[in-house]
Amino acid sequence: MIYRIYIALILIIGLAIQPAYAYWVWTPESGKWENPKYAAKDTPEEQLTYSQDAYKQGNFKLALKEFKKLIKYYPLSKEAPTAQYYIGRIMQDTGKYYDAFKALQKVIDLYPYTELVDDVIEREYRIGELFFSGHKINVLGPIRMPAKDKAIEIFKKVADNAPYGKYADMSMYKAGLTYKDILDYDNAILMFKGLIDKYPNSELIDKARYQLAECSKLLSLKAEYDQTPTEVAREEFEEFIEKHPESEMASDAKKIIEKLKNRESENAYNIGQFYEERRMPASAAVYYRDIIQNYPDTKWAEKAQERLDEIAKK
Predict the structure, then answer these.
(1) Which of 13, 96, 129, 245 could tie 91 with a disulfide, CB 3.0–4.6 Å?
(2) Alpha carbon 94 to chain centroid, angstroms
(3) CB 77 within 8 A of CB 111
(4) Which residues pair with 145 in a beta bridge?
(5) What is the mean pLDDT of each run of 10 residues along the chain (314 residues)?
(6) How far apart are CA 89 and CA 83, in angstroms?
(7) Which helix (H) or strand (E) element contains residue 188?
(8) In the chain, where do the E strands start and end?
(9) Among 172, 242, 245, which Cα is nearest to 211's?
């Protein structure tokens, strides 16, 4: 009796699960038994067509799944880079811009000889511009913050991907501007110098030289007794004027040079005061004479002369 019940249960269970497994087939690509409903199409061409149809219909969820399926089952097919490209397109279309950049970059990393490279680089550049313009990303729940670091990462990658492409010099320039925006003047200077050295014929050369000088000036604001950064900034602006005298930015550069000279002379005067307070008039006099000789048009030259006269009396 128990034996008959056991056999009956096996038959019932078998009938229950039979529909679920009746259509499973062995797929050599995955080395598994799979339900054809969830398997890839017979050829990568068919799989790509099916995926693209879903994309054109706006069914991004299905399209994403099917493009990923193509890459999984046919990773070496000529359709694979197109599938990876569309994964990036879907991320871009749905507003997941950083994910889109990552997906698009995979096209270049995995399939560097694909015809899609130029399109990918242009899309990456446009995504970089979004972050450069202040596009925000989620950092904690509903909290959204600008992601300038993403702009830098993307612009640098665009320049690396195609160092002689149409977006290379502009990407380096905007990476430099982004570093400047986040007050990282050292790296900003490196980007602007890199652009000048690598693309001497770029239309951005004059702007890059001006920004190089500007960042040197901003970096010099941190200096106290060490005037080297200020001197470097002044020299950069002077070089800019020398090489681009007709630039619309030349007049601004001249004004900045005057301010930097005033700062240099003020700093030298303060050092002279420092030595006077420590009863070292000879050392103080060296700095006062330097101001009179090198910065005669500043207000500090008159003050320095007054101090020299006073030292002479003593």
Answers:
(1) 96
(2) 22
(3) no
(4) 137
(5) 54 50 53 63 92 95 96 94 97 95 96 94 96 73 68 95 94 95 89 94 93 83 57 77 83 81 81 77 83 86 88 82
(6) 10
(7) helix 185-198
(8) 25-27, 32-34, 136-140, 143-146
(9) 172
